[in-house]
Amino acid sequence: MAYDRPLLDPSPRPPPTPLPLTSGHPTPSAELPKPLAEPPVHGETYYNHFRSSSRRATASSRSRADRISLPELGSSESFRRAAGSRGHVRHGSRADSERLGGGSQKEIADEDAWLVYIDDPGKTNEKFEYAGNAIRTGKYSLLTFLPRNLFEQFHRVAYIYFLIIAVLNQLPQLAVFGRGASIMPLAFVLLVTAVKDGYEDWRRHRSDKIENNRTAHVLSGSEFQPKRWKEVRVGEIIRIEANETLPCDMVLLSTSDPTGVAYIQTINLDGESNLKTRYAKQETLSKAPEKGGFSGVIKCEQPNRNIYGFNANMEVDQKRVSLGPSNIVLRGCELKNTSWAVGVAVYAGRETKVMLNSSGAPSKRSRLETHMNRETILLSVLLFSMCSIVSILAGIWLGNHKDELNYSPYFRKKDFSEGEEKNYNYYGIGLEVLFRFLMSVIVFQIMIPISLYISMELVRLGQAYFMIRDTNLYDEASNSRFQCRALNINEDLGQIKYVFSDKTGTLTENKMEFQCASIHGLDYHGGRTPSPGDSMRVGDEVWRPKMMVKTDPELLRLLRSHDESDEKSFADNFFLALSACNTIVPILVDAPGQPGVKLIDYQGESPDEQALAYAAASYGYVLIERTSGHIVVDVLGHRQRFDVLGLHEFDSDRKRMSVILGCPDKTVKLFVKGADSSMFGILEKSFNVEVVRATQSHLQAYSLLGLRTLVVGMRDLNDSEVQEWKSSYEKASTALFGRASLIRAVASNIESNIHILGASGIEDKLQEGVPEAIEALRRAGIKVWVLTGDKQETAISIGYSCKLLTDNMTQIIINSHSKESCRKHLEDALAMSKKLVAMSYNTQNAGGTESSRVPQALIIDGTSLVYILETDLEEELFKVATNCDVVLCCRVAPLQKAGIVALIKKRTDDMTLAIGDGANDVSMIQMADVGIGISGQEGRQAVMASDFAMGQFRFLVPLLLVHGHWNYQRMSYMILYNFYRNAVFVFMLFWYVLYTSFSLTTAITEWSSVLYSIVYTALPTIVVGILDKDLSRTTLLRYPQLYGSGQRQERYNLKLFILTMMDTIWQSMVIFFIPYLAYRHSTIDGSSIGDLWTLAVVILVNLHLAMDVFRWNWMTHATIWGCIVATGICVIIIDCIPSLVGYWAIFHIMGTGLFWFCLLGILVAAMVPRFALKVFNEHLMPSDIQIARELEKFGNPAEVPAAGDIEMRTATTSQHHRQ
């Protein structure tokens, strides 16, 4: 988000001091372009104290092929030679972008010091055991893979349960199944997971190998030699060429720029694609490491994860120099627009900051999976009860038949086979009861379905594939597809109740467009025609700004007039401030389809700065060159060069930035721009009060239009002020400790007695489809809260634009500056909110409609939240906020965003979703149940921390209302079906045990028992879980209210689970007792009737699934009917193996008509209750989903009423009942 992100990253610029060219730097090349000669740059004569920076800047511009001044008129060939094969030419340098981390340097204790001897890796690593530069992101090795992977897999308690079952079955006294068969289900699941983990780890090892074998140029003797990355050691001096990636964290010693500037791209580190500047210290710039004699020691802090902080000191030439974040370049960064850079390795391998930050986003668990644990516990209780019943009844039976046990086929006490009487397979009633209990656990083990876990993973993988491939979630503008970064919470997308959204870059495009300006109290907001800005001829080429901005004709006439009025002077300085007070870097690119035309592309970290620079260019103030010491601006056709004497960048304390310019007329001017809250406090008291009031009025009007505003001011500096500032700045920038605070103090001191020039209004346009998306989410019963750092007026205006706020809403606004004031406002707001809710409820009871309800909106600022969050007032805020339909938080900090999300998560069971595009949204994204990152203009930190990522806010509608609904419906059904499928089988075995003297023998072969959950019934539920759709995409988007079924947990709840278990008991009784009653007096053996039970239960559960399928396709048909056929084939094959129990059993029973009659009777009798209940519900108590399905099937789309006319349950109704 742009508002929390400074226009410039806070970083003090080193004061301009002359640097001689030494052998360590390249001499100016004769082939490089010369400085502009004709027409002349105005202001070639400067004060004496300006000359050093001018000479240095000129030398700098001549020393680099990609950093050049304007060429002579009539020849642009020098640009082509300098640019080589590149598609554009870069002009000037980028402004400083140091991040000051904690803001001050502190002394490093000797015991905590990290000592690095420059160019002496032997001494460095001899005394200290530093890590090598080889990295390893793989989790396993050949030796550790098996034990570690098994250890990680057994973190799932269910796996431990099945392991215990398998171990118990190995004991002779408890052996129910064959030893191999009992291990097979768990072994299969473990094997599949291990193969998946092993493949992923192999890919990591392959990536590590490629990374470790890359080459770097390391100083060896008197020259730089190629060396593999993994062999680089701390203390070695490394040379990096342009566009190369850094192999380790290193402190800069020198660069190709005589000023010591290096430009880096940190996209591999923090996702930001903008360039940042780093500096080599003055004390090391003139040294040439390859010529020997470079020695010194760096005393720095221990390795840590703070990528924006670095605290160190360097002793070189018996001088102690302070090092900070601007002097270190981190592993993974790329060197850009700098020919070369030399540095010393300070952190290597796993101790680099990027490796210390390599952990991903926090793991989140699905809400369904959490609820599933409840049902798993209930099934465990049921399993324990069944085992207890069997063991107790077995004990009673043994007691009642103790005199018959010598002749019992199952409990024979004595063995007389060898002539000597001895105990045989009997250990007394007590132990027998215990053994029966443990054997029951083994027999009934699949009551808790082990296959469910792997089925869920496969279903989520399939769902993710279809979400990624959905063209409705593809953003053409950014050429980005939907990303599913967390596979374990797909179904949570169907249960969202609260959406917490960032504004800038999420609801808006974060592509700023200059709209209007207030200059010296006059408002210019015409903007009738787009103006591309002044074009200029350079040799055979025409240069013009890339972007067109609408200009005000009256303001253009004023700027181009030749009068010397105050209005003209203020307007001139206003646009000069817009073009100069920034860190924009102009770059030449080819105009498509226009040979001979070059476009000036302004690159900068902030979209606001780019918009202001293009606006200035459109009015005739074109920034065409920037170096570290000067800028060149084409002012209405006349090129003027300004020395940049100092630049104080934006920081969160001052909320403004300033630049000190040496102007062509030998004057020195300070230009300042910043937020109105910080600018009006530094104005000169005697300045025209009417102008200030008029500007404030215009700012208010701009805010009401939803525009982002900045105030611009200036003042002239005299020689004494410049010298005083220069002296103070040099002292502050060279201080060893507290440097950041000292520089802020210097900036605040010079930024005083400012004359206001005016203010700007920039529009951040809404993304396409945002109003419609918010309206659809609201109709779906989802509450949308917007958390922004913009001013309240701007946020409210955007709220109306995107239909978040409506004219009929009652707004509750809380702006407080103390805890007591917050308490009083919250109490008043709660009373008003309850009154409005009661009025709405009474109106609806009196026959009113939902539309007659009074909607409410809470608008609160960050200052008030400071006194509310994490205090006793949180509960009051929660009550007010949950009564409101919309919550709009203004001027909030990143941690306050997370606090607002936590406010809901801690107090409700409702699912939360956070969506944002910037680094300041990361905490909110990670706090919410579901986090979505927008691939926007502010880097990829939000994407990297998110669970899902997409290109536009409007994609949230199909993601939640379509895919979220489908995923929730499918996963809910699949979990319940897996519980049902296994419970039917277990209950069938339970009835059999009751009729076999509780001996725990089973008629079903052990291999059929094992294959039941893995082969016979597993595949259909996976396919249905991936492909089934209860409603079409069109219907779900047309009627957003249908999303409420997930919020109300209609598809998975305790009631459905209990009904499913009751149906399971009935079906298991039918499966068991029909064959039992039919064959009880026959001579058929147990194995044959066991095959009948096997076929019956498999066919039944697959028909059960088929009855509930909404949309059939060839894969669904193939898997359901194919599994039934496969079961029959497997049963036949098993019975054809002579070594197995039940040889030829299936053929003994299949040839009789009774077999087929029983099979048909089982299917009919078992399905009748479920079919009757299904008919009853759909005809007499239809749900919203069933109504919509009938509309799809039978309704005429042309006659289907609008969504608002369909009577559907909404979350608002349930909220009223709760109150």
UniProtKB/TrEMBL annotation:
The protein here is known as: Phospholipid-transporting ATPase
Q: Which cofactor does it need?
A: Mg(2+)
Sorted alphabetically, which SUPFAM superfamilies does this protein's record hold?
Answer: Calcium ATPase, transduction domain A, Calcium ATPase, transmembrane domain M, HAD-like, Metal cation-transporting ATPase, ATP-binding domain N
Compositional bias of kind Low complexity: 20-29
UniProt: ATP binding residues: D502, K503, T504, E609, F650, K673, R708, T788, G789, D790, R891, K897, N920, D921
Which parts form a coiled-coil structure per UniProt? Answer: none
What is its subcellular localisation?
Endomembrane system; Membrane
Q: Which EC number(s) does UniProt give?
A: 7.6.2.1
Any idea which UniProt keywords this protein has?
A: ATP-binding, Magnesium, Membrane, Metal-binding, Nucleotide-binding, Translocase, Transmembrane, Transmembrane helix
Residues covered by region (Disordered): 1-104
Membrane topology annotation:
Multi-pass membrane protein
Major localization listed first in the record, in broad terms: membrane
Q: Which domain of life is it from?
A: Eukaryota
InterPro entries, from UniProt?
ATPase_P-typ_cyto_dom_N, ATPase_P-typ_P_site, ATPase_P-typ_TM_dom_sf, ATPase_P-typ_transduc_dom_A_sf, ATPase_P-type_domA, HAD-like_sf, HAD_sf, P-type_ATPase_IV
Q: Which residues form the P-type ATPase N-terminal domain?
A: 116-182
Binding residues annotated for Mg(2+), in chain numbering: D502, T504, D917, D921
Active site, per annotation? D502
P-type ATPase A domain mapped to chain residues: 213-278
User: Which organism was this protein described from?
Assistant: Colocasia esculenta (Wild taro)
